[in-house]
Amino acid sequence: MKKYQKTLVIGILVGIIFLSIWAYFFDFCELIKNVKNLNFFYLGLSIVSYISAYFIRSVRWNRLLNPLRKFSLRQTYLWSLSGNFINYLIPIRAGEAARALLIKKATRTPVSLVLPSIFIDKFFDTAGIFLILIMIPLLKIEMVPVLQWLVIIILIIFLIGVITLISAIVAEKKLVLILQKVFFFVSDKYQAKVYSMIEMFVEGTALFKNHHRIFVQVIFLTFLGIVLDGLYFFLMFKAFGFDSINIAMIFFGYTLLNLSYILPQPPGQIGSNELLMSLIFVSGMGMAYTDAGSLIAVAHLLTGIVVSVLGILSLSVVGVRIIDLIDRSNNE
Q1: What is the chain's mean pLDDT, rounded?
Q2: Nearest Cα to Cα of residue 314 among 84, 48, 91
Q3: Under 8 Å between Cβ of 294 and 27
Q4: pLDDT tens-digit map of 116-141
Q5: What is the pLDDT of residues 283-298, one digit of tens each?
Q6: 226-280 per-position pLDDT tens digit
Q7: How far apart are CA 41 and CA 238, in angstroms?
Q8: Torsion, Cα of 288, 294, 296, 299 (10° steps)
Q9: What is the spatial distance between Cα 126 and Cα 57, in angstroms, rounded to a whole number?
Q10: Sign of the CA dihedral running 124, 130, 133, 136
Q11: What is the pTM of this model?
């Protein structure tokens, strides 16, 4: 069995366990009742906002790729949707490698030249931690131990990204030497190639040194993406008619939920979404368990359909089979 297949099976089993725990305490009769009362106008707007957030992130990645080569927004949007779909299926962040491979297939651009833009792109996805840290003391939220550890882990990942970016800008050669020492175990046969890739990675990561305008654009697009994400979930609350949670808490809750995606997830985020949603909105904000469960069940199903449909269509347009892309992603 291939490595990614083993990972997939393990991820599915973990997801089933999570989902079973969540479902054991959930009243599915309440789900049917809540679904019958859905406001489809707000539901439609929420999906539009969700798709728009994906588009904004693809625009951000497009700006990060500009110093390397100018690509059309259509190209980066298709590659982003394809990568997101692979990430949704495989709980080992294979989508990031998939994006680089799609560019390589379309333009013959080496993967090592593209990876820095993807690293920076994913780093800015963690910038929402600022919002979380600012809002925790302002909102009446019970931060149970699991949520506290989640915030700490995401903050550590964010700080590692900050240190890497700053080091690449102010101490490029030193960072190269440090990373080369980290990969001391590489055999002599591949050492020159690996060291060359490290140099290209660090050089690409330092793009903000000579592109201050891009940095400002990326900051703005990151903020806009966070707003659209929060708006998506706020509109989902409106669709259900749930008014017990105010907009600030909804933005906080979904931002934290969204930040958790930086960590490995079961395929399709099965079970992990439901449990984390319960921890944030039920344990943390006092929302009714059946209400929170109904909302996340519908939201999870709809977003899963959107990610899958857009991802499959994007892969079809760029002319790549899912299996081939996953195989190559795991071999890079």
Answers
A1: 81
A2: 84
A3: no
A4: 888 888 888 888 888 888 888 888 78
A5: 888 888 888 888 888 8
A6: 999 999 999 999 999 888 788 888 888 888 888 887 777 777 677 777 888 888 8
A7: 10
A8: -140
A9: 13
A10: negative
A11: 0.83
**Which residue reads 């690449």 in tokens?**
168
Per the CB < 8 A criterion, the answer to whether 73 and 54 are in contact is no
Q: b vs e for 143-169, b when ≥16 Cβ sit within 10 Å of the residue's Cβ?
A: beeebeebbeebbebbeebeebbebbb
What is the 3-state secondary structure of 137-206? CCCCCCCCHHHHHHHHHHHHHHHHHHHHHHHHHHCHHHHHHHHHHHCCCCCHHHHHHHHHHHHHHHHHHC
Give the whole-angstrom CA distance, residue 231 versus residue 115. Answer: 30
Torsion of CA 59, 60, 66, 71, to 10 degrees: -30
Spacing of C-alpha 82 from chain mean position: 13
Residues of the chain short of pLDDT 70, as ranges, are 1-12, 14-15, 25, 91-93, 182-197, 199-200, 204, 206, 268, 322-332
pLDDT value, residue 200 = 67
Q: How far apart are CA 191 and CA 199, in angstroms?
A: 12
Q: Among 150, 153, 145, which residue's Cα sits nearest to residue 283?
A: 145
